[in-house]
């Protein structure tokens, strides 16, 4: 049975038994886990990072973004968790799923290639920002 509301628990580690309707937040591991909101029973892991999911907590409720698309599950459920409410989204075509996964890979490549570059170094894949252009202009590069 699909759920409309999800509770949350901050935990030190992911528990062995995951309950339906509970979002477990292991902040030391920057990860959340819950059972799919459609009721199929599969576990959904959402790692927090600049290129994955972000978690919001207002002292009462929890939100995750972006949406959760369980495209590799038979249920293919797609939903948002906003203020502890499950907001269902429509199914996506296989083409849109592939395009979304490719965009995720490009975002990760840009982020990790840019952050690993030496200070002031411009990545060939990422256009230089305003301050990078100024620094390079002053350095005569």
Give a concise summary.
This protein is an alpha+beta fold and 141 residues long. Helices cover 22% and strands 28% of the residues. The longest helix has 22 residues, at 94-115.
Features:
4-stranded mixed β-sheet; 141 residues; globular
Quaternary structure type: single chain
Mean pLDDT: 86
Question: What helical percentage do the residues reach?
Answer: 10-25%
Integer-rounded radius of gyration:
19 Å
What is the count of DSSP helices, taking H or I runs of 4+ residues? 2
Supply the helix-strand structural class.
alpha+beta
What profile does the largest beta sheet have? 4 strands, mixed
Unreliable parts: 120-125
Number of strands: 8
Spatial shape: globular
From the N-terminal CA to the C-terminal CA, the straight-line distance is: 61 Å
Give the count of structural domains: 2
Give, in spatial order, the strands making up the sheet with the most strands. Answer: 1-2-3-4
What sequence of helices (H) and strands (E) makes up the elements? EEEEEEEEHH
The portion of residues forming beta strands comes to 25-35%
